[in-house]
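User: Second chain of the day. Same drill as before.
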Amino acid sequence: MPVTTQPSPERPDASPLLARVGRMARVGGWTWELATGEIIWSDETCRLHDLPPGHRPSQREALGYFAPEARLAIQTALDQAIASGDAWDLELPLITATGRRIWVRCQGEADREPTAAGGQTVRLVGSFQDVTPQRRLWAELEGHRQRLRALYESTPALLHSIDTHGHLLAVSDLWLRHFGYMRDEVIGRPLAAFMPADSAAALIVRQLPLLWQDGGCVEQALQLRCADGRLRDVLMSATTEYDAQHQPLRALASLVDVTDDLRRQGELTRERSLRAEIEHHAEELRRLLNERSEMLDVLAHEVRLPLNSASAALQSASTALEGQAAPVLRERLARAEAVISQVLGGVDNTLAAATSLAGAASVATQDTDIDTLIAVCLADLPREARERIRIERQSSTRTAWMDMSLMRLALRNLLGNALKYSATSTPVWLRVLDVEEPPAIVFEVEDQGPGIAEGVRARLFQRGARAGQAREGTHGLGLYIVRRVLELHQGRAELARSDASGSVLRLVVPQGAD
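Assistant: Same format as last time:
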């Protein structure tokens, strides 16, 4: 049970002025006489403990008001002061007589008297100050600081702060994840340590001085090295914090990673350059193709017309000498006519491969009379060759949709190929057939030659392929052109049969509604 006593002149708050100042500052005093164990509290100290003025506690009671977690600290401070005269200054939690929990600043020092051993503590003197408001404010400020730090570190942005020496003070979680570091790997280290040499030199020599001088920067280009060694291009914007004397304290920076944007921009630049180069080459190619087309036109005019005239003259001479000239002369005329026909066929194939067939995807077709097409093809052949052709019509169709000039070339090549590789005493058959599903007109050319070698059949219609020794002429264009003509008609050229008794080559020309 606390004992109430009357204030005495010896109490620390005996002066009314000092007592008033103590109340205002919420500071109370106390003494502890070690010889008698007497503890004297000032009135303000009593009020801090929610006790009436003049209360004099025992040592056990006085220490008992400290919170359990603080008793070891205060007991240690008292023991050291008694033993060696050390002063103390502690902030400790205290529980008052009414159960209030407050924080007090407890200070004390020792009064010592000289002895033969060097000195002895005879008294402890100290003060209590209620610092609960300050502690509450500090706790609130610390809470705000922790929340701000958490907000800073968890913000979805690449943030870091640096001191005036360029050392990292803090970084956001996204900064760490983006560059692949742990927090303890970067805090306290220079920002320049995470940069290549040239970028680090620019930061130290130019960018940081301007940052402290100008108070910030906008989109400064930097390169930062990731934990795995990769370099990332970033743009740094920062603002500087100053103290009361306008001296720089730190800078808060926000980064934007532009590595992918720069890569895409570089790819776009390269693509534009490549496109311009391709367009230049295409223009050169068009110019060359135009020149080639003009040369082919000249070739067609300067070569074909004289050859056609020569062929017509030879045919007229052969007709005029029919039954009058010697057999040797007629044979020579026939040979000359055959040679000119072969040359004309080669020129036509070469021109066709170089002009209308090269690169085309389709042709414009028209309703063509089939018998007229066959007659024109036969007229292109020498007379002796025409006499070997047998026409077999298994179709009553009179017209078909096709490009007559190209089909004339394809049929002539097919007939010429069959005539060349079969004995001169054997006929060559040209058959015309119908196919209903899907609708198509079919031309078959059958010879009685030795057949086509097994190894050649798969590539028979390819450019340069030959069915036998020297077959397909000098350049192997004949059957290649046949295939291309049929492709332009959305049809196909195929080998229907080939054995020791001869070969059958087939042209299928679709006749769809379109």
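The chain has a mean pLDDT of 83.

User: Great, on to the next one.
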